[in-house]
Design a protein that fits this description.
9-stranded mixed sheet, single chain, globular, about 40% helix, 12 helices, Enolase-like_N, alpha/beta, about 350 residues, magnesium, Enolase-like, domain 1, 4-stranded antiparallel sheet, about 20% strand, TIM Barrel
């Protein structure tokens, strides 16, 4: 009943009128790889990952490699399967695209197991349904001022109480000017965060952070290369603004080093990069033991349920990209969301949007 019989890989794509850019990437499509596993009793477990236009053949190949290893495995053996995949993938590396595939199967296995038990994931993990703060994300560097103001104004109109925009222009003073327009548009009761996507150097990031304090910026996300731990330490000590990072990490080792250096204020785990449910929660526990709040990267439909299972969750990030493609989008009212009560993760991609790969 609980053993994996087969798996299927699909692609879905959200609408994108024109390319969008941050400080380090130009995105030409908003694509998702969707994984479905089926047990011998016909239960379907599903997961997805955000892929944009990057490495479509490589991620499908990695998913097939992992899938062949897991045929015949029980869907509730997530820990054992994780370790076995790690051992198998060690030769070419457990980080990178192999970890994405590993995480996708982990998340789908949790979906299937929860459906077998007819319970939502958060309840199986001992959580309690509660409202989780959600912030509106976007503010792409490629936006004109008019587009930027229109987006944050729309978030405000929809009841969001916090927004995040991209920074990392060649001249940090242009970032500051864009932040001023955003503050003017949303007023003083909306929190504003800024994200450089690792696109700045320490001197420029420090100058922007200090200048942006006058606008009451809530936090500065990924200001510099995520490997530059000493740079993060310097920024946290001198910038006068909270420093957030974590979405690029494939284990808790970077978090341990950032904690040792007292170089981080907010931990932002990415469930697909870290390794799935257990790895996400392990990182949250490490953050909690060092009094660091957790505010995960991107995957709100997984993060909201998981945030209901920890005590140091700060909120979740919202893009609307998958909402038109799934059967039960997360309902956000006045910047707050409650996890689904349906079994599993509580949502599924609609078949009409899926193309089998």
């Amino acid at each position: 009943m609980t053993k994996i019989k087969n798996y299927t890989i699909f692609k879905a794509e959200a609408a994108l009128n024109k390319p969008i850019s941050d400080a380090t990437h130009k995105l030409t499509e908003i694509s998702f790889i969707v994984l479905r596993i089926e047990t011998i009793s016909g239960i379907i477990g599903e997961s997805y990952l955000l892929s944009f236009q990057y490495s479509p053949r490589a991620i499908v190949g990695a998913l097939k490699d992992v899938g062949e290893m897991l045929i015949g495995e029980d869907v509730h053996h997530t820990v054992d399967c994780f370790e076995r995949i790690n051992l198998h993938n060690e030769y070419f590396g457990i980080e990178g695209i192999n970890r994405w595939a590993q995480s996708a199967f982990n998340i789908a296995m949790w979906d299937a197991w929860s459906k077998i038990l007819q319970q939502p994931v958060w309840k199986i993990l001992g959580g309690s349904a509660r409202l989780v703060p959600i912030y509106g994300s976007g503010g792409w560097s490629s936006y004109t001022i008019e587009e930027l103001v229109a987006e944050v104004s729309d978030y405000k109109k929809r009841g969001f109480t916090a927004v995040k925009i991209k920074v990392g222009k060649p001249d940090w003073k242009e970032d500051l000017e864009r932040l001023r327009y955003v503050r003017e548009a949303v007023g003083n009761n909306i929190a504003i965060m800024m994200d450089a996507n690792q696109g700045m150097k320490v001197p420029e990031a420090l100058s922007l952070a200090r200048a942006a304090r006058q606008l009451d910026i809530n936090w500065f996300e990924e200001p510099i290369d995520h490997h530059d731990f000493d740079g993060y330490q310097l920024l946290r000590n001198q910038a006068g603004i909270s420093i957030a990072m974590g979405e690029r990490e494939y284990s808790t080792l970077p978090l341990r080093e950032l904690i040792r250096l007292n170089a981080i204020d907010i931990w932002q785990p990415d469930i697909l990069r870290l390794g799935g449910v257990e790895a996400w929660r392990d990182s949250a526990a490490l953050a909690k033991s060092n009094h660091i709040p957790v505010l995960p990267h991107y995957y709100k439909d997984y993060d909201v349920p998981l945030l209901c299972t920890i005590s140091n969750g700060k909120g979740a990030e919202s893009f609307d990209w998958i909402d038109p493609l799934i059967d039960h989008p997360l309902k956000i009212d006045n910047g707050m969301a409650r996890p689904h009560s349906r079994p599993g993760w509580g949502f599924s991609f609609e078949d009409k949007y899926l193309v089998e790969l």
